[in-house]
Structures are given as structure tokens and as C-alpha cells.
Write a structure and sequence with these properties.
The complex is a heterotrimer of chains A (about 575), B (about 675) and C (about 190). With about 575 residues, chain A is mainly alpha-helical. Chain A is about 65% helix and about 0% strand. Chain A has 19 helices and four strands. Chain C folds into two domains: about 1-40; about 55-190, no CATH class. The chains are: A mainly alpha (about 575), B alpha+beta (about 675), C mainly alpha (about 190).
Chain lengths: ~575, ~675, ~190
């Protein structure tokens, strides 16, 4: 670790904050239906889309109607892309003549992209036609990110409502978000990325005769357009198997900085949007401070651990220096470590290094971030998890100050606690139970690329990534088997929708409650003291839940590595 | 009610017995956390008989280990039951003494033809009329129809001074089980058998009618959720271990030990004890809360509505100053004033004598026993003495005195009017004093704010509670008193409807309102308020409407009830936090130990340097068990509550119970490990 | 039923908008404004044929050219990926040992203690187009011997191809192997 390296990390995060705050304000204006400077462009376009979709934008929806629309449109989208994956071998825009997917892989991939996970049990350049990359992958990278975002906004409306059931109109929200945010942002970013070296072509792979006379088939395609929304929508599903480590997805240090900023942008901004909704800037600053502190702490653990290198290589082969297995030279350790941290903290799932080859402590951090799934968290989903844990924290700390707990003036009662507890149970259940099943079955173990504790980490990482809708992987695990395609597919679907349904039910119940005015006896949620308790609750509940699994995985492996033992 | 010692031997021995009775699974299942422990106990018990019940080939020593785990688990459950039993115990003892007052009562019931028949009190119905003579126990709750008598209510209130009960007005309700000391009363029964105040009170203190409060349910849900999480954690450990080392696995007793250590047994065991103890604390304050919910609601109060008279000010006005008029000196005024009040038994009258004594003027009653005492009447609105020498001394309302003087041809000094006005303006009541028809001056009667009220209102403000004073006084007087007492707002010239309106508007803003009241006209407001504290001296309508009854009829007790409500929640939160924070140390004790055979590397995590895997697991399990009885006193007494800002209270409690909860078990487990090692049990 | 119909319409509308119009618009912009980048930064050799991409490493097995970093996928530009070997995996030791041997074969003068991790540990994509300056310097004697170019010339060449940190802040100084090897070939073909 060097001062210069630390500076690389901190400057990126500073820029992210500087852009995140105004974008947060913009997202607030978009979510509250305010006019924009480009109203003349946006408004007619929106009206056209309302007509095409057939919605009446003035209809208000309560939580059930909103949730129903959200789930239904997700289901239909999943079915559509499932069909695309099953048929794309026979459809146009397939210059490299790639085949269609098997049923289980198509199910896994459709579930993966509709849930904003972007877990990939396929290698992009070898299994996905250009048409698939465009009308399935790129398309869902827009809409799945938008789904999480509007869910969070709808929930926040429930907080503000004073005995009013409406959470907004799902169709209007999703169309406005595309027209005013996602499409313009992605367009600008994608054009910049093409300029910086990302391919954007419909031509098939290029055959090259290398300098030493060999043949090399160079896959390419409409990469930049996908890459832009992949990062902005906290999606993470790469065009190529190597994801953002591939030079065509991330050719320079500058592009990697831009991609890091892109994936952190909306999750950061949403914290400030939330602050605007609650008319409480201090709350946003407090939340941001604690979350960014966790990100920084995690990133520096990765950085330090990777810089320290692998003692076993030193003992056995005399290789000293940082752990460079599965990393790219152009990014350097600091930006690689930052990418590892941000892609899991902001729940994107893109990788610019192979996480499977990280040192155990370096691999622990992304797992932990995904287990929390609220250190900013994915677009919308992160905010929902933050709110879920805020409810639990407020409940406990409300007791500690002798008041029936309330959050933002809404009483937390049995119903809210029931639902929040349900949402809280989803993660441990999916991650631990599925991991346990996988490591006790032959087919589960057969897919591991590494043995022993590291193999365990591969499986633990996979189900954590799926449940947290992250999508990054310890990619050695061969997920393209019926067992993993189905289990991770269900992992992603349940991880996403059970908590969304529970949180919507909470929103519906909170929306109908009266807002209690603040008094001096009210527990303030925008203080650093409260933030400290919030983080303590998150860390302790998370640690207690996952400590044994982490001990068998990365913690055990770190001790193993320090003791210089190779896996049996 | 009889105030019993916190823990007497009888209660404890009965609680020990009850802890075993409560092992009945049908009772245990109401407490999911402890029920899990009981199931664990059954499983390890079976494993003690056959260590290979779930497969494996364990050595004979495993049986001893399983036995120890079984015993610790049983003790854990018993400790939890004991906590609940002891909390209930005090209530049960009280209920029994109350029940004694109820038994074998007979009543003289008026029959249709106007005669009386003697019937068992239990057969009395609503509407029956009974006659009670001096020395008899009142057979049922009711309203006095005829007569006036003093009643000993100590059976219910514990207060030995008798109270006056009479027909009409706000002091007409009597309670069954209390004793009439003098005179004779005709009482109309107002309740059917089984619904009497005494019945309700018995079931309350006994906890029979205790229902979980919403907050308690919410916490139980959260605890059940955590228990489920830990069930998943522990259930998946065996597959994990099996993956790492296929031929070895973790024995079931150890897994159960880990599960029991992780699930929030501390709070699970103490939760109902905390609730019962909270209600009990309220009862010991001589307040009967009709539900636990009311007590918790008290902790949330935003607005507190208090009557001025009797609550904020001591019920009576007291003399604070003598203001001479005309050419009279203060000395001569005091002499006349004291004389006029010499036989006056009203608090105002006594206060005049007191103040006179204070200023050096005292008369002995013996010297004036031939004087004729003229009592205050609504007609004359004055009182005083007709002395033996024919002199007439009077004090009274200024306009009444003025009229009297004019009638008798006296003159009114010029400065009487301005001085009278000054007193009124300051919120006081002026009394004019005359000898014959000579006006000597004024007695300044003042509303006296009870001592300490200012500080209490300041405390309430710190808790975030707004106080509103209601008074029939004019706005000027009201403002003065409000200022002096330090209340936030006041309503002057208040009518009962005003109170109601205030409660409604506050509630519409989402606030919780508490009030106290005793009259029938307070009943609607008492019912409307979130916390309505009715005075026991009040009418039965008021008592019916409120959700709490204060047996001492001291309205300021609302403040204590608020504190108890808060304390109840804080205790719950503190022990929950403590319970969860404990798990950190337990992990460090158990995880390296249980993986010892499978992943020997993990001994690096044995940061407490516990002697052996068995000792580590047993130490954690034993710590988990004994922390329950250690915390019983805290659960019973409640966490200390001091008014301060919510944020600083949060930090204070997090520091004590959160950080403390992380550290304490490290010390405790290590200490137990040392003891186990010293006893040579580390390698069973 | 109405919302099912709305869901289907929404899906189709966004599929066309985000899945077709958006990428096609970008292909249009890319092909007209940035044709070099948009087609994968392909470079041509002395004979005018495409020899590869600036951004994609290719295998160097014979002496005379600078070696890129080891690839776990044998530089398959249609099947990118890393080794995904964990730090305690015996296979990692085997892989790194093999890479050391391969490196030593072309650079016999270099001792193991001089070799840095970047040159013997596989890259993430298997296509890492860059090497560190130190790794380039380390290969100079080997390249010099095979090509006959002086170590001085090669050193100047390497230093001339060093790409520094962006804005002096981000990334690590590195050398693009394709650029460097094309320059080496240019010198040797003269």
C-alpha cells in the first residue's frame, strides 16, 4: 500500500460524491414530477410512450396495485427474454453463428437479468448472439435497474404519506425514469466509452494473423452500449466472459475510473434523493458518511491484503510482491481493489479482476458487502435494505430510549416488524441453506474449480451474489449445470422479490399511518450516534448470521495461507 | 394493598415450584425462544442415554459430556421459568390477600316491599340496594344513595386514613371490600358478580388477564426471527463441517449448545418477567392500570393535561400576606384576622392562623371557648366569631363584606378597591377582614404551587412531553399560576368540553394525550385520552372511563406512570441488546472448539485461550444460563430512567448494554473456563 | 387482464427502445465518429494484414518479441478468462511454476528472484495487453539476443512506449506489448 495508491482510491470517491449530490437532486425532481430544462424533449416522448403502453398517467396506485404491476411486468419480461435465449441461434444478428441456450441456462440467465443480478453462467463472447446482447441483455439492464429504483421511490413515498394510500403510478415512474435519466445518461456515457476504445459494431469476430504467425479470433460487438448501462444500472453482466477485466470492456485506467463512478453514481445519488424526500439533509449526510466509511474500510482491506501478496508463492517459488493472479496491469492494485469494493458494495457485479484469485481477506470483503447488501447496495434495492435495517434499528433503539419505536414520524408496530423480519430472514436462508445443499451434493462439489476451503468460498460466493442480486462471482465455479442454473436462478428470484414484496407491504402500512410530529423526546435518526447504532446492528446481525460460514470459507483459508498450507 | 417485600422466602419457594410446573410444553410454547431450549434439552437427554442416536461412534466419554449439556440446558429453562414465576409471585401474594377480603361477605339487601334480607354478597346484582352499618364491610361496588360516612379503604389502597363517602357529588362511589367506620349508608350496587373492582384488581395483580402488549408482540416476533436465523446457521454448520472433513462431524449436543447460546435466551427468558414487573411497579405506586398497553402508552405521551386545583396547586388557597387598609396597621389587621379564623377548620382558615403565628400573633382557643363560631355559608360568604364581649369579627369575600359594612352603616376605606384589584390581578384571592363594621384590611389568599412542580415540569419537557394546565380561573390568574408552575400552556375558564376539544386536536396531530380526572363530567375526556388516570375518590363513571385508576387519588402520579412506561420499554431494549451482543464472545468460544477436529487451524480464533473444546463449549453454555438469574433483579427493578435527550439516552444505554454486552461474556466465559479447568472437568 | 396487456406492451416498447434503437444509434455514432475504436483498435502488420488488436494480447512463444503476461486461456480472444485459481490451490503453484519456466526459456539470463508476480501470474482476462515497465526491462537481454538489436536501443524503445498514469493519478505506468513489438519489428525489418 502506498500513499499514491490510497490517493487514487480517495480521489475517485471524492468525484463520485461531487457528482452524486447534484444527481441526487435531479433524481428527486424526476421522481416528484417536476419540470426539467429539456421538458420540450422529454414530455412529448413520454406522452408517446404512455400511449404506446396504454396507461393513464394520472391514475394513482396503492401498494398492492403498484406491486402487482411491478411483478407482472417483470414476469412478462422474463418470459420474453427466456424465449429470446432459447431461439436466438436461429434469429438474425448472429454473425458468429452461436447456438441458442439450454432450458436451464436460459432460465438462469433470464432470472439473472430480470432481477438486476447479471450472474452469468455463460461466457458472453462464446454463447450470446448480438441480438441477445441487445434485445435481452441491454434491454433488461435498463428495465431491471429501473425496477429497483422505482420500488425504492415508491417505498419512500409511503414514509411521507400522511394517511394516504397512493404510492404513485408504476408505469409513469418507470417511463419517466427511462426517458429522463437512464437513456440520456447511458447515451452520453456510451459515446464517451466508444471514444475511449470500446468496440461498437455489428460485425462478427475478426480473424488476425498474429505477429508470430498464429491465428487469433478476436470477438467484438456492440460493447460500449451495453457497458454504459451495465455500470449505470448497477447490472454488471459483461459482454465478454472476463467482464470489465477484458480490454474491450475496460481498456484503460481512465475507463475503469469512469466505470467505477458510473456504478456508484445512482446508489450514491439515491441517498441524497432520499434526504430530499425526507426534507432532511443531515440524514442523508449521516447515512452517506457511515456507508462510505464502510466502503473505504473494505477497499483498504482488499488493497492491503492483495499488496501483501501470497506467502505460499514466496515460500515455494521465491516470487515476491503483490498478488497479481487474475489482475490486469493497466488498472494497478488500487483501482482493482476499489473496483472489487465498489462492485459489491454498490451491488453491480462487474469485475475488473478475477475475484476467485484474490487473497482470502481480499475475497472476504466482497462477500461481506454482498451479505449486507446495503453498503449503498444496488440501485433501489440497496436503499430498500437500508430502510429495512433502519426499521429494525429504530425498533431496538426506540426501546432503549423508552418510546414505542417510530421512524420518520411513523410508528413501528407488529406488522412492520413481522414484515421486516421476514425480509431479514431471506438472505440467511437462501445463502446458508443453498450453500449447505451444494457442498453436500456430488454435483455441487463437482463444479468447483478449487478444492477445500476455497472451493467452499466459491459456492458461498455464488449464492451470496445471487441472493444479493450482485452477479459477480468466484468465477472458477462452473455454474452452467442444471443444479446451479436452477438453484442460483431461484436464489436470485427469491432474493429479489420476497424482500420487495415484504417491503411494499410495509410501505402500504406506513403510508396509511399518521405522521407523528417530532418532539424533544423523539429519537432523532439523523444523528451520528444513531448512525453508529445502525452500523452496529447491521454488522452484528450480519456477523452473527454469517460468521460460521465465513470461518469455513475465507477466514479459514486466510489462516491456512498464513500457515503456508496448500489445500489437500 | 399490603406492601410485601421484594423477595420473601415464601414467594421464592413457590417460584421454584412453579418453574418446574412451567416446563409443561403446552405452557412453554408460548415462549418460542425458551421452547427451542426445551426441545434441545429433550434431544440431549436422549443423547445421554444413547450417544449414537443420530449415528456416529462416540466414545463412552461422550455420555458424560452430553449429560452435562443436558443439565445446563434444563437449568437454563428453569432459570427462565423462575424469572417469570418470581415476577408473578408477588402479584399472586397480593391477590391472595385481596381475595381474603372478599370471602364470606354478607349483605343486607332491600327487598321489593321495603324490608331487608341477608344474602351472600356474591349474589348481589347491578341495581340492588343494600344497607351498610358502621363496622360492616361494604359488600359490593356501588354508589351511595343516602347517608354520609367515613370509609376505611386500606384493604385496597393501603392508605389507613379514612375517607368520606356520601350521597351525591363526586365522592359517592364506594368499593366492595372496604369498611364503613361510621354512620350508615344506603348503597346501590353498580356491578354484577365477578366484575367488581376487587375482582378486576385480583386478576390484574395475579397476571391472569395479562395480555402481551403490541410492543411485546413485536419484540417477540423479532426474537423469533433471530431464533430462526440461528436455527438456519446451526443447521447448516454440520454440512459445512462435513464438506471440509468428510469423515468427522460435529456432535449434535455441541450443535444444540451453540444454538442455545446464540438464540436470544436472555431476553426470551426475562421478557414476560419484565412486563409483569413493570405492571407490578405501577401497582406498587398504587395505580391500577387496566392493561399493559396503557402503561406503555404512558411512556409515549406527548401531551399531559392537568387540572390546576389539586394537581398543580395544593387544593386550597393559603394566606400569604396581610394588607391593611385605611389607617389600620398590619399588626392590628393580623390580630383581627387570626381571631376571625381561630375556630375555622378550613385549610384557608388554618393558613391564616399559621401565618399569624409566623408573624408573632397567636391566640389560644381555650380563652375563647365562650365565643360563638360563625361558619361559612353560601349565603353570607363570610365566617368569624361573635366574641363574648359582643364584638363581631369576620372575614369573607370582599363584596360580601362590603355589603355587610354598608348595611351596618360603616364606611369603606378608599384603598380597599385598588388593593383588592391588585391581588386579583396577581392571581390571588382577597378576603376582607372586619371587626364590627370597621374594615381592617385584606388577607391575600394565594394558589400555592406544590413544591417541586416546576422541576417536574422541566423533567417532562426534557422527556419531550408538553404540559397543559386546565383551570376555571380567569386568564389573568391562570397565566400567573402557569408561569409560576412552569407549565407550557394553559386553558383558562375551562369547561369540560374544552378539555375534550384539546385532546381531539392534539390527537389529530398524531400526539398521545394523557389526563387525569375524577368527576363524572371528566369521563368522556378520560375515555378519549390515550392515558386516562381516574382518581379512586372519583365517580364510578370516571373510573370506568379511564384506563388507570389511582388509588391515592394523586393526579401528579401521571408523571411516575410515564417514567414507568418508559422504563418498561428501556428494560426490554437493554436486555435484548445485551442478549444479542453476548453472542460475539460466544462465537469466539464455540466456533474454534467445535471445529477443532475438522479445522485445527481455527485454534487461532481461540482468543480467550480456553483450556479445551469441551470446556469452551460448556463455559459459554453455563454463562448463557447463569446470566438469566443474574439479570432477574434488573428485569424486576427496571433499568434506571433519567430524563435526558433521546440521543444521549440511546448512547448511554448502548454503551452500558451493547458494549458491555460484548465485553461481559468474554470475562465471564474465561472465568467459568478457569473454574472448570480447576475442577478438572475440562476434558470430560 | 388489462395490466397483463399493459405489461406485454411495456416489454415490447422497451425491448425496441433500449434493446434495438439505443445500441443501433450507438453503432451509427461509433462507426462514423470513432471507427478505429468502434471496430476493436485493429492494427495491421507490415504486409497490410490485420495482425491483431492493440488491446488484445497474443501469444509469444519464440524469441525476438516481448512476451505479454501469461494467459490461462492461451490468449483465446474469443474465450477470455483468468485461471480462477485460489491462493492456496496446489494448481496455482503448478501454473506459476510453469510460467516461470516459460519465461526463463526466453530469458535465460534472468534469475527467479528478479521475476515479478506480473510476469508469471496469469492475467484476469487472459488477454492483458500491457506489461509493467520492469517486466519489459527484464526481457530486453532476451529480445536483444534474438533480434541483434542493442540493449541500449531496446531500452530507449521501451521507455518511449511507457504510458504513465492518467493525469498522473490513476493506474500504473505500463507498456503496451503490441505497440512495442510492432516497433521492434519495424526496427528489425529495416
Amino acid at each position: 500500500m502506498t500513499v499514491q495508491g490510497s490517493l487514487q482510491i480517495l480521489v475517485v470517491l471524492a468525484i463520485l460524491l461531487a457528482i452524486g449530490i447534484p444527481v441526487g437532486g435531479y433524481l428527486y425532481r424526476v421522481s416528484t414530477g417536476q419540470r426539467s430544462k429539456l421538458e420540450g424533449v422529454f414530455a412529448p416522448f413520454e406522452r408517446l410512450l404512455y400511449r404506446l403502453v396504454g396507461v393513464n398517467p394520472s391514475v394513482e396506485m396503492d401498494w398492492k396495485a403498484y406491486l402487482k404491476a411491478l411483478l407482472l411486468v417483470n414476469l412478462v419480461m422474463m418470459l420474453f427474454v427466456y424465449l429470446v435465449f432459447r431461439l436466438m441461434g436461429h434469429l438474425p444478428l448472429n454473425p458468429d453463428h452461436l447456438p441458442s441456450m439450454s432450458w436451464d441456462l436460459a432460465f438462469n440467465t433470464a432470472a439473472s437479468f430480470v432481477t438486476n443480478t447479471n450472474w452469468q453462467n455463460y461466457a458472453g463472447e462464446a454463447s450470446m448472439t448480438y441480438l441477445g446482447q441487445m434485445i435481452a441483455i441491454t434491454f433488461l439492464q435498463f428495465t431491471s435497474g429501473a425496477t429497483g429504483f422505482v420500488a425504492a421511490i415508491a417505498f419512500v413515498r409511503g414514509f411521507i404519506n400522511n394517511r394516504r394510500s397512493s404510492l404513485g403510478n408504476f408505469w409513469v415512474d418507470i417511463i419517466r425514469l427511462h426517458v429522463r435519466v437512464l437513456i440520456p445518461f447511458a447515451l452520453v456515457f456510451a459515446v464517451a466509452l466508444v471514444g475511449l476504445g470500446l468496440p461498437e459494431t455489428l460485425q462478427g469476430a475478426q480473424i488476425a494473423h498474429t505477429l508470430q504467425g498464429a491465428l487469433q479470433t478476436i470477438s467484438r460487438g456492440p460493447v460500449a452500449s451495453l457497458e454504459a448501462i451495465k455500470q449505470l444500472g448497477t447490472n454488471g453482466g459483461g459482454f465478454f466472459n472476463a467482464n470489465s477485466a477484458h480490454p474491450f470492456e475496460d481498456p484503460t485506467a481512465l475507463t475503469t475510473v469512469l466505470e467505477i463512478i458510473a456504478m456508484g453514481l445512482f446508489p450514491t445519488a439515491l441517498i441524497f434523493t432520499f434526504g430530499k424526500f425526507m426534507r432532511n439533509r443531515k440524514l442523508a449526510i449521516m447515512l452517506y458518511s457511515f456507508l462510505i466509511a464502510m466502503v473505504i474500510a473494505g477497499v483498504f482491506v482488499v488493497y492491503g491484503s492483495e499488496a501483501a501478496g501470497n506467502p505460499i508463492l514466496h515460500h515455494l517459488l521465491g516470487i515476491t510482491g503483490a498478488n497479481m493472479e487474475g489482475k490486469e496491469v493497466r488498472f494497478g492494485l488500487p483501482l482493482t481493489s476499489l473496483f472489487v469494493g465498489t462492485t459489491t458494495a454498490y451491488t453491480t457485479g462487474a469485475v475488473n479482476a478475477m475475484h476467485d484469485s484474490l487473497t482470502p481477506m481480499g475475497g472476504l470483503i466482497p462477500i461481506v458487502f454482498m451479505m449486507f447488501n446495503l453498503v449503498f447496495g444496488g440501485k433501489g434495492a440497496g436503499l430498500l435494505n437500508i430502510l429495512m435495517f433502519l426499521i429494525i434499528t429504530v425498533f431496538l433503539s426506540g426501546l432503549m430510549v423508552g418510546r414505542t419505536p417510530e421512524i420518520f414520524g411513523k410508528k413501528i408496530e407488529v406488522r412492520e416488524i413481522k414484515l421486516a423480519t421476514t425480509a431479514m430472514l431471506v438472505h440467511p436462508f437462501l445463502i446458508l441453506v443453498l450453500t449447505a445443499i451444494a457442498v453436500t451434493t456430488k454435483t455441487g462439489i463437482a463444479s468447483m474449480n478449487n478444492t477445500y476451503l476455497h472451493g467452499f468460498s466459491e459456492v458461498l460466493y455464488a449464492f451470496t451474489s445471487g441472493a444479493a442480486n450482485n452477479g459477480s462471482a468466484f468465477a472458477g465455479l462452473n455454474g452452467n449445470t442444471p443444479f446451479y442454473n436452477v438453484s442460483i436462478g431461484l436464489d436470485m428470484l427469491l432474493g429479489r422479490y420476497v424482500s420487495i414484496i415484504a417491503m411494499f407491504a410495509i410501505a402500504g402500512s406506513l403510508a396509511m399511518k399518521a405522521v407523528i410530529p417530532e418532539s424533544s423526546g423523539t429519537l432523532k435518526t439523523d444523528t451520528f450516534s444513531f448512525g453508529f447504532v445502525f452500523v452496529a446492528v447491521v454488522v452484528i446481525v450480519g456477523a452473527l448470521t454469517f460468521f460460521p460460514a465465513l470461518v469455513v470459507g475465507p477466514i479459514g483459508e486466510q489462516i491456512q495461507m498464513w500457515s503456508g498450507q496448500l489445500s489437500p | 394493598m399490603a406492601k410485601s417485600a421484594t423477595f420473601n422466602r415464601e414467594i421464592i419457594s413457590r417460584a421454584v415450584g412453579d418453574s418446574f410446573v412451567k416446563l409443561n410444553p403446552r405452557v412453554m410454547i408460548r415462549n418460542p425462544v425458551m421452547f427451542v431450549v426445551e426441545i434441545g434439552f429433550v434431544i440431549t437427554l436422549l443423547l445421554t442415554f444413547d450417544p449414537n442416536l443420530f449415528g456416529g461412534h462416540y466414545p463412552a466419554t461422550q455420555r458424560a459430556y452430553n449429560l452435562i449439556v443436558t443439565i445446563v440446558l434444563l437449568v437454563t429453562v428453569l432459570f427462565g421459568n423462575f424469572a417469570e414465576a418470581i415476577a408473578e409471585g408477588r402479584g399472586k401474594a397480593q391477590a391472595e390477600s385481596l381475595r381474603k377480603t372478599k370471602t364470606d361477605l354478607w349483605a343486607k339487601r332491600r327487598t321489593a316491599n321495603g324490608g331487608y334480607e341477608t344474602v351472600p354478597a356474591t349474589t348481589l346484582r347491578k341495581g340492588d340496594v343494600v344497607q351498610v352499618a358502621a363496622g360492616e364491610t361494604i359488600p359490593a361496588d356501588g354508589e351511595v344513595m343516602e347517608g354520609l360516612g367515613s370509609v376505611d379503604e386500606s384493604a385496597i389502597t393501603g392508605e389507613s386514613a379514612p375517607v368520606i363517602r356520601g350521597a351525591g357529588g363526586d365522592f359517592s362511589s364506594v368499593t366492595g371490600g372496604t369498611k364503613l367506620l361510621s354512620d350508615e349508608l344506603m348503597i346501590q350496587v353498580t356491578v354484577d358478580p365477578g366484575e367488581s373492582f376487587l375482582d378486576k384488581m385480583i386478576s390484574l395483580v395475579e397476571g391472569a388477564s395479562r395480555q402481551k402488549t403490541p410492543n411485546e408482540i413485536a419484540l417477540s416476533v423479532l426474537l423469533a426471527g433471530l431464533t430462526l436465523i440461528f436455527l438456519i446457521v446451526v443447521d447448516t454448520l454440520e454440512p459445512f463441517a462435513h464438506y471440509v472433513h468428510g469423515s468427522r462431524s460435529i456432535d449434535v449436543a455441541t450443535l444444540i449448545a451453540l444454538l442455545v447460546c446464540l438464540i436470544p435466551t436472555t431476553i426470551g427468558a426475562l421478557l414476560s418477567a419484565i412486563g409483569i414487573a413493570g405492571m407490578d411497579r405501577v401497582i406498587r405506586f398504587n395505580v391500577i392500570a387496566k392493561s399493559g398497553k396503557a402503561v406503555e402508552a404512558a411512556g409515549d405521551i406527548n401531551t399531559l393535561i392537568l387540572d390546576k386545583t389539586g394537581t398543580i396547586t395544593i387544593g386550597n388557597r393559603l394566606a400569604t400576606e396581610f394588607i391593611p387598609v385605611g389607617s389600620h396597621t398590619e399588626q392590628s389587621l393580623i390580630e383581627v384576622a387570626v381571631l376571625s379564623s381561630l375556630f375555622d377548620e378550613t385549610p384557608e382558615g388554618r393558613s391564616v392562623v399559621e401565618l399569624g403565628k409566623h408573624k408573632g400573633v397567636a391566640y389560644a382557643r381555650e380563652n375563647y371557648h365562650e365565643a360563638n363560631n360563625v361558619e361559612f355559608s353560601a349565603d353570607t360568604r363570610m365566617s368569624g366569631l361573635d366574641l363574648a364581649n359582643g364584638q363581631v369579627v369576620r372575614k369573607g369575600a370582599v363584596d360580601a363584606i362590603r355589603q355587610y359594612v354598608r348595611q351596618h352603616g360603616g364606611t369603606i376605606p378608599d384603598d380597599l378597591e385598588p388593593k383588592t384589584n391588585r391581588i386579583a390581578k396577581e392571581g390571588g384571592t382577597p378576603l376582607a377582614v372586619i371587626q364590627d363594621h370597621e374594615v381592617y384590611g385584606l388577607i391575600y389568599l394565594k394558589d400555592i404551587v406544590k413544591p417541586g412542580m416546576r422541576e417536574r415540569f422541566a423533567e417532562l419537557r426534557k422527556m419531550g412531553i408538553k404540559t397543559v394546565m386546565c383551570t376555571g380561573d380567569n386568564p389573568l390568574t391562570a397565566a400567573t399560576i402557569a408561569e409560576e408552575a412552569g407549565v407550557d400552556e394553559f386553558i383558562a375558564e375551562a369547561k369540560p368540553e374544552d378539555k375534550m376539544r384539546l385532546i381531539r386536536t392534539e390527537q389529530e396531530d398524531g400526539k398521545l394525550v394523557a389526563m387525569s380526572g375524577d368527576g363524572t363530567n371528566d369521563a368522556p375526556a378520560l375515555a378519549q385520552a390515550d392515558v386516562g388516570l381516574a382518581m379512586n375518590t372519583g365517580t364510578s363513571a370516571a373510573k370506568e372511563a379511564g384506563n388507570m385508576v389511582d388509588l391515592d387519588s394523586d393526579p401528579t402520579k401521571l408523571i411516575e406512570v410515564v417514567a414507568i412506561g418508559k422504563q418498561l420499554l428501556i428494560t426490554r431494549g437493554a436486555i435484548t441488546t445485551f442478549s444479542i451482543a453476548n453472542d460475539v464472545a460466544k462465537y469466539f468460544a464455540i466456533i474454534p472448539a467445535m471445529f477443532m477436529a475438522v479445522l485445527p487451524n481455527l485454534k487461532a480464533l481461540n482468543i480467550m485461550f480456553l483450556t479445551s473444546p469441551q470446556s469452551a463449549i460448556l463455559s459459554a453454555l453455563i454463562f448463557n444460563a447463569i446470566i438469566i438469574p443474574l439479570l432477574i433483579p434488573l428485569a424486576m427493578k427496571g433499568v434506571k430512567y433519567r430524563p435526558m435527550s433521546a440521543t444521549s439516552m440511546l448512547m448511554r444505554n448502548i454503551f452500558i448494554y451493547g458494549v458491555g454486552g460484548v465485553i461481559a461474556p468474554f470475562i465471564g466465559i474465561k472465568a467459568i473456563d478457569l473454574i472448570i479447568t480447576a475442577l478438572g472437568l475440562a476434558h470430560v | 387482464m388489462r395490466s397483463v396487456w399493459q405489461s406485454i406492451r411495456t416489454t415490447i416498447v422497451f425491448m425496441v427502445l433500449c434493446g434495438l434503437l439505443y445500441p443501433l444509434f450507438l453503432v451509427l455514432i461509433g462507426q462514423t465518429v470513432f471507427p478505429f475504436q468502434a471496430n476493436g483498435e485493429l492494427v495491421k502488420g507490415p504486409n497490410g494484414a490485420v495482425v491483431g488488436s492493440r488491446l488484445i494480447a497474443q501469444p509469444v512463444t519464440q524469441p525476438g518479441l516481448f512476451q505479454p503476461r501469461p494467459s490461462a486461456v492461451n490468449y483465446a480472444a474469443n474465450g477470455s478468462g483468468g485461471s480462477n485459481l485460489g491462493p492456496t490451490n496446489p494448481a496455482l503453484i503448478k501454473e506459476v511454476r510453469g510460467n516461470i519456466l516459460a519465461f526463463e526459456k526466453l530469458n535465460p539470463t534472468v534469475s527467479v528472484s528478479q521475476i515479478g508476480p506480473t510476469e508469471v501470474e496469469s492475467s484476469a482476462s487472459g488477454l492483458d495487453p500491457d506489461i509493467t515497465v520492469r517486466d519489459a526491462m527484464l526481457q530486453i537481454p532476451g529480445v536483444a539476443k534474438a533480434t541483434g538489436l542493442s540493449t541500449h536501443t531496446l531500452k530507449k524503445l521501451v521507455l518511449g512506449h511507457v504510458r504513465g498514469r492518467f493525469l498522473g493519478i490513476w493506474g500504473e505506468p505500463h507498456v503496451n506489448v503490441m505497440d512495442l513489438n510492432l516497433a521492434v519489428l519495424k526496427l528489425t525489418h529495416k
